């Protein structure tokens, strides 16, 4: 069993009730009131959650004490995803409060998602009273133990007096170093106990000292590699977004003339219109981005972790490259790929120092001539652009819908996606021109993430408006399968007046799973049809009911029957939202234009799209990125790879 880290080994639970000296000064209040006061003093302005028995003292205090906005959700998992969306859109910590037992366990998926994507989040859960712990009391669950592998740190709080300090520490831990989720499990004993409140609190964090400044020697070594490289690539991940390093990444690209390939979470770190931007690399990346990384002689990994969806076969990834790896988390350095120059530190801080060193070197020795490298990259971009195939049956091409949404959206739009084919098409066809404008579940790939994350982003946009800025529009691109996992949050969107615009790419199937079944499972479409859109007679799996007549949910259309279970337009309307449906390009354009005009309530557009559309380019799982298929049978990088091996 892995040993706990120094941070995790530190316990927030005192050895005995008298082991701490109780302060004699401060304002008397209950632990629940102290929690609310502490969140206010930490500058928290928005909180998401759902009440329950073990957290009721806190909710009772919320009723009279809270200055922050509280958003009531319909499911605890959604509270976590809303906090994530809020955190990514604002760069601040997301906070959610739920009860014990199933309320806490419902949060586990969101906690795991935030951990994988390095999202700063504080999850406050209720817990039974101290004397009931370990007795299998009603709605008792060891949430600290259950989430141990997927949180940055966790606390079990048993005394009211500890609450302000623990929350202050949780906020600091979640937002410093590599961001991540911190769990605060709050016993009912601590919530109802009396304490003396004072602020600020003294943090007790032995052994927790994140490195932000890089050592001068490694900066010099990295700059030297740039000076001897003729095929450099900047491979930029979500850590650069978390570090707010967009300006530094763009400056480094301009200074060295190195192309930039991004991961899914780093879309927008460099504007799409910037000539250095190659788009996303990896399994569904552009040929230019994937090819540049495969054939580079210097790979500069910036806030990236060499994820398998990026690297494909790891031994075959960037085989000729020397590697500079910049990351604030030392555990990531060398974990998947050995680094020639490992640099531990905050990405923005490290890049500032690296840029200065490269400038000094260039003043003395000049910059390498990499024109031949750019000729190759431009050839890839010209010969293998991001395109798509129109549907043969007259239904909408989902890629066309995404591109049309991007073309008709405001420049400051915040884009959110669920998980599946629509997520990849969104990354490929939207023009991202600023950081923190793209929210998607990457590491965990959590279906159902989209709608609650979009609501969290919309809450952040409303906060921007209150601070005197323009309220950013929020568009969610989701699939019919992903959307139905958290569709109940339409009620939250309606009552919170968050005007989320939802583009539902409805292909009536679990699209990404179906794509894999088509390519790798001989078209055995086992349990991937959803029957919530257009279904042909050849689809014999469609359910039938003896003696049932034509209902409001089915309508005959020649040789086909359209089954709408659910009817997404009616579902939207049932939740007080605007619902629309589009079968043709003309209808789609009209719906998009109307949605862009509606800003007082959520809008859902049910786009009926081709169910056999596929995401290209594609690298089969576990294969070398050099085998990437631009289209079936077209492998632009393979000939170069085989020639090199020969």
Write the layout of secondary structure elements.
Blueprint: H1 6-9, E1 27-30, H2 31-41, E2 46-49, H3 56-65, E3 69-72, H4 76-90, E4 94-98, H5 102-105, H6 108-116, E5 121-127, H7 143-147, E6 153-157, H8 163-175, E7 181-187, H9 188-192, E8 194-197, H10 216-227, E9 232-236, H11 238-242, H12 246-256, E10 260-262, E11 277-280, H13 287-295, E12 298-302, H14 308-311, E13 322-327, E14 341-344, H15 347-365, H16 371-383, H17 398-407, E15 414-417, H18 421-429, E16 438-439, H19 450-466, E17 474-479, H20 480-483, H21 490-495, E18 501-506, H22 511-520, E19 534-536, E20 554-557, E21 560-563, H23 568-574, E22 578-582, H24 585-597, E23 603-608, H25 638-645
Parallel strand pairs: 2-3, 2-4, 4-5, 5-7, 6-7, 9-10, 9-12, 10-11, 12-13, 13-14, 15-16, 15-17, 17-18, 18-23, 22-23
Antiparallel strand pairs: 1-8, 19-21, 20-21
Helix pairs in contact: 2-3, 2-8, 4-6, 4-19, 10-15, 12-15, 13-16, 17-18
Structural class: alpha/beta
Number of strands: 23
**Biggest sheet overview:** 6 strands, parallel
Q: Provide a count of the helices.
A: 25
What is the overall pLDDT average?
A: 91
């Amino acid at each position: 069993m892995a040993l706990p880290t120094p941070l995790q080994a530190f316990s927030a639970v005192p050895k005995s009730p008298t082991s701490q000296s109780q302060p004699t000064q401060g304002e008397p209040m209950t632990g629940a009131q102290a929690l609310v006061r502490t969140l206010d003093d930490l500058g928290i302005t928005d909180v998401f959650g759902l009440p329950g028995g073990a957290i009721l003292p806190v909710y009772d205090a919320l009723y009279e004490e809270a200055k922050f906005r509280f958003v009531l959700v319909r499911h605890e998992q959604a509270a976590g995803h809303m906090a994530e969306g809020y955190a990514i859109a604002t760069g601040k910590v997301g906070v959610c409060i739920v009860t014990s037992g199933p309320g806490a366990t419902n949060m586990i998926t969101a906690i795991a998602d935030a951990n994988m994507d390095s999202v700063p989040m504080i999850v406050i859960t209720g817990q039974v009273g101290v004397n009931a712990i370990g007795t299998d009391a009603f709605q008792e669950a060891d949430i600290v133990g259950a989430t141990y592998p997927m949180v940055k740190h966790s606390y079990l709080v048993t005394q009211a007096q500890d609450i302000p300090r623990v929350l202050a520490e949780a906020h600091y831990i979640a937002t410093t170093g590599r961001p991540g989720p911190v769990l605060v499990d709050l016993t009912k004993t601590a919530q109802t106990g009396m304490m003396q409140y004072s602020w600020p609190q003294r943090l007790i964090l032995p052994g927790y000292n994140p490195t932000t400044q890089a050592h001068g020697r490694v900066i010099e070594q990295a700059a030297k590699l740039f000076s001897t490289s003729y095929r450099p690539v900047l491979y930029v991940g979500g850590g650069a977004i978390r570090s707010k390093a967009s300006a530094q990444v763009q400056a480094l690209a301009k200074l060295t003339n190195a192309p930039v390939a991004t991961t899914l979470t780093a879309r927008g770190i460099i504007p799409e219109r910037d000539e250095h931007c190659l788009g996303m690399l990896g399994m569904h990346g552009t040929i230019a981005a994937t090819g540049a990384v495969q054939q580079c002689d210097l790979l500069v990994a910036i806030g990236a972790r060499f994820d398998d969806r990026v690297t494909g076969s790891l031994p075959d990834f960037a085989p000729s490259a020397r590697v500079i790896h910049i990351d604030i988390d030392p555990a990531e350095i060398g974990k998947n790929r050995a680094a020639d120059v490992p640099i531990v530190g905050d990405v923005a801080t490290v890049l500032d120092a690296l840029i200065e060193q490269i400038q000094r070197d260039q003043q003395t020795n000049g910059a390498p001539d990499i024109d031949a490298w750019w000729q190759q990259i431009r050839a890839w971009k010209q010969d293998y652009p991001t395109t798509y195939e129109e549907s043969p049956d007259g239904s909408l091409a989902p890629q066309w819908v995404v591109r049309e949404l991007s073309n008709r959206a405001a420049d400051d739009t915040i884009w959110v996606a669920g998980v599946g084919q629509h997520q990849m098409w969104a990354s490929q066809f939207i023009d991202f021109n600023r950081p923190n404008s793209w929210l998607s579940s990457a590491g965990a790939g959590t279906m159902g993430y989209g709608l609650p994350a979009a609501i969290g982003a919309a809450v952040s946009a409303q906060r921007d408006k209150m601070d005197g800025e323009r309220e950013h529009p929020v568009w969610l691109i989701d699939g019919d399968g992903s959307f139905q996992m958290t569709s109940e949050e339409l009620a939250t969107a309606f009552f919170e007046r968050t005007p989320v615009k939802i583009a539902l790419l409805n292909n009536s199937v679990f699209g990404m799973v179906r794509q894999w079944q088509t390519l790798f499972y001989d078209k055995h479409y086992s349990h991937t049809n959803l029957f919530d859109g257009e279904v042909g007679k050849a689809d014999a799996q469609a359910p039938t009911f003896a003696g049932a007549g034509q209902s409001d949910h089915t309508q005959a259309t020649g040789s086909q029957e359209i089954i709408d279970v659910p009817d997404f337009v009616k579902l939207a309307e049932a939740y007080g939202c605007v619902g629309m449906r589009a079968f043709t390009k003309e209808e789609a354009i009209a719906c998009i234009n109307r949605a862009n005009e509606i800003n007082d309530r959520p809008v859902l557009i049910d786009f009926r799209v081709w169910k056999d559309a596929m995401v290209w380019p594609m690298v089969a799982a576990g294969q070398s990125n050099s085998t990437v298929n631009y289209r079936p049978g077209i492998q632009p990088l393979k000939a170069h790879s085989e020639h090199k091996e020969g």
